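Example 3.2
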Amino acid sequence: MNELQFLTWVRGTGLNIAVAIFLLGVTWRLFEIYSLGRKKDLSMPRHASGASGFHTVFRRSLAPPGMLKRSPVSYIGGYVFHIGLAVVVFGFAPHILLISNLTGLSWPGLPSQFIDLAAVVTMAAMLVMLFDRISKPVKRFLSTFEDWFTWALTFLPVLTGWMAVQHLLLPYTTMLALHILSVEILLIVLPFTKLFHAFTLFGSRWYNGRVNAHKGVPV
């Protein structure tokens, strides 16, 4: 298989397989979560200021008081990495075209120079966070194989995509194929790892806030 055949496969059969596994995995995981059921809380609701699902979503999206100073890399790096990744994924014109072909949804893309900067900043933030995790004994002790694995799976699509656009290291066709392949591997793995928090993050925060709000406890 030459590089053109490789690119053709990852853009066709490989992408179809990855998207199918991704959709089936996400559907199954969401079904598992929402089919668990919850007993109805028969107690009288206790109202308290700031106690609601939406309040919790907002509060949990911000650093707790004092934590920004104690762990700036985790919070600042986390914000930069997630925002930058979202900009790269949903702001790059070729990505939007792919999404449009798959779903019919489309929106204006951002300037390529801005996307390039966002990709570099995202990779830098991820590397800083990786170094912080390695250099801090407690974080290193708490880290599992899945943490390192999912970091690599998230980092590689950004790196290979940026290198393809910059025409670095390998021929463009080969690097583009590797980029698409890395994205496909990420899609396949995402529903079955911690990366699934992309789908459960705000829902779980809202639910916890709602349950505690019924008790009159803002969280």
